[in-house]
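Section 3.1: Structural characterization of target chains.
Under the original work plan, the team committed to producing a structural model for every single-chain target entering the pipeline before any wet-lab resources were allocated. The record below documents one such target. The sequence was received from the expression subgroup and is listed exactly as submitted; it comprises 324 residues.
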Amino acid sequence: MKTSWRSASLVATAAALLALTTACGQDKGDASANGQNVGNAAPAQGGYGSDDGYGAGKGDAYGSGSADKDTGAKTKSAGRLAVWDSKKLGRVLTDDAGFTLYRFDKDTAQPPKSNCDAACLKAWPAVPASGATAASGVDPSLLGEVTAADGSKQLTIDGWPMYRYAMDTKAGDAKGQGVGGTWYAAAPDGKKASPEPAAEPADAAGLSTRRDPKLGEIVVDKNGMTVYRFLKDSAWPIKSNCLGACAEKWPALAPVAKNDTKNIPLKGYMTFDRPDGTKQQTLNCWPVYTFSGDKKPGDVNGQGVGGTWYAAAPDGKPVGAPRK
């Protein structure tokens, strides 16, 4: 009987201690199943602020800011991925709710590895691999998985682990872009999202240059069409020997104002009167032309024709012409 009383006393004491421990634990805020707080508690001193590359923010994985809210957002499937065309960032990969997906420069893709530790994952929740499907037009073979610091299977795109950002509160937000110089919105191929280089307006410059992969720097007109030299012409006196049918095939370049040029030396930059009364532009006193056989910007179909026609260099010399 005495033994039974002691057992009952020990059980009662243990129950009291358990109740006290549980009550204290409730003051620490919501915690996920693995003990990682993704509520709106501020990061600890020296934790993952923007200075150390992780970034920090209040709220759950979607920035709801609700301390007593379920942390299921952290493990919410990305569902069918989508692509958002951002004027500022280019093509950005998102989950099915339109939230931006990010990549971390301290991770690796070959082999896939996440270097965002448990504390980091509070601000940058890993996107679960389960349930994620490729966006329209995205190669499904790019989707993979890697084990995150919390032991979960994290979605990868071409080897790069994917994350959400706690400070993004609505579809289209990209507040994590550039945080710490290490976090960037992901493109559909797993690379960093980047806007397409702005195309220069067709009339940005009446004459400019472009770098041809085979010929080097050559002159182009306002439409991006290659400008040519004719070896049978002369520079002084300035004279064009391309007339009649030749002029139809090789239209003379009309005058272009000096202030409407880019990367063009202005020495010998002048116009002259052709036999038909029209004016033609010269480069370093040499008459220049376009070619009717070039159909789109970048074409150099006139290069070397008849051994007399060659793309013009900025100084007026014929690119690739045989030396005399």
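The chain is about 10% helix and 20% strand.
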